[in-house]
Design goal:
Keywords: Hydrolase, Membrane, Metal-binding, Transmembrane, Transmembrane helix. One of its GO terms (biological process) is lipid A biosynthetic process. This is Calcineurin-like phosphoesterase domain-containing protein. InterPro entries: Calcineurin-like_PHP, Metallo-depent_PP-like, Metallophosphoesterase_sf. It is built from 9 helices and 14 strands. It is of the alpha/beta class. It has 2 domains: 43 residues; 257 residues, Metallo-dependent phosphatases (Purple Acid Phosphatase, chain A, domain 2), CATH 3.60.21. A hairpin with a 3-residue loop joins strand 10 and strand 11. Helix 1 runs antiparallel to helix 3.
Length: 309
């Protein structure tokens, strides 16, 4: 904002200046600076704090009674998001009173700092003690960033996956790592597969394939952090894949869509919301917080309240 004010002041006080001689252009330039400053302030300090509830209805064959599931992803506690932010998430989830809670990876914001950021997840224990809560790994748990052909080069930060899994289990969160559980809620049953992290090629469907043989009539929901897994997941008869990771692009531009892109070849139209691929449904949440810059625009953080029926 200050550069725009200086420009206009200089135009007024110095008739010989370029700004004075080009009033229309200087006014347009000043307006652009003011608008840019507004959106930068709003996107950095306002919208990231506007935690919203995104209510979605998804049809899933095999269920007669509706199930309410709170889906949360990309909490990213750490540099920007502290325990108070997780408490706000926990309070909102509890107020929604879902049947189940799914936490879809990237619980921390990975970096080299040796601090207590994992402790910032403690309010999730308040949720897990009242509502069955399931979670899976994301790439930040492993310290993974890029999708290099050499898998060793994908590990950019310390691997805290084992420490985080144990911390979440200590909070009574059921932490799934390539595991499948039969879940029964309100008389309705389905298989839940919790996949490991896609970016380290760790998703293994062996437990799911075995569970399908034992329960061929049950619908299947998969919790996998990276939505790019849909290509392989659809080959295993999964009815619904729930993912995060994209943050919806974090910044979404009108008529364009996500400004930020992820490291794999995923259509931009799949960065948030519900799509179908090869007989499987994929739902991607925009996430609850940010990574990289603390910036969101036209894409507020969210908790998704899914009604599966």
């Amino acid at each position: 904002m200050l550069p725009a004010v200086i420009l206009l002041y200089h135009r007024r006080k110095h008739p010989e200046s370029w700004e004075y001689k080009n009033k229309n252009k200087s006014a347009l330039f000043a307006a652009t600076l003011l608008i840019g400053t507004f959106f930068l302030f709003y996107g950095s300090f306002v919208e990231p704090n506007l935690l919203t509830v995104n209510r979605q209805i998804i049809d899933l064959p095999g269920l007669e009674k509706p199930l309410k599931i709170a889906l949360i992803s990309d909490i990213h506690v750490g540099d920007f998001n502290k325990e108070s932010d997780t408490q706000r998430i926990a309070d909102l989830i509890l107020s929604l009173n879902p049947d189940l809670v799914f936490v879809d990876g990237d619980h921390i914001f990975g970096n080299y700092k040796d601090d207590n950021r994992i402790d910032y997840l403690k309010p999730l224990g308040q949720v897990a003690k009242k509502i069955p809560t399931y979670a899976v790994h994301g790439n930040h748990e492993y310290g993974v960033g890029l999708y290099d052909s050499d898998i060793k080069k994908r590990f950019k930060l310390p691997n805290k996956s084992a420490e985080i899994a144990q911390a979440m289990r200590n909070l009574d969160v059921r932490y799934l790592i390539n595991e499948t559980e039969k879940i029964t809620v309100n008389g309705e049953s389905f298989l839940l597969f919790g996949g490991d992290e896609f970016l380290i090629d760790a998703v293994n469907y062996e437990s799911l394939d075995k569970a399908k043989l034992e329960n061929p009539e049950l619908p299947i929901i998969a919790l996998i952090h990276n939505p790019t897994a849909i290509y392989e997941a659809s080959k295993h008869g999964i009815d619904l894949v729930l993912s995060g990771h994209t943050h919806g692009g974090q910044v979404r531009l009108p008529f364009i869509g996500p400004a930020g892109t992820i490291e794999t070849d995923l259509p931009h139209a799949w960065y948030q919301g519900l799509v179908e691929y090869n007989g499987s449904k994929l739902f991607v949440t925009s996430g609850a917080n940010e990574s990289g810059a603390r910036l969101r625009l036209f894409n507020p953080p969210e908790i998704v309240l899914l009604t599966i029926q």
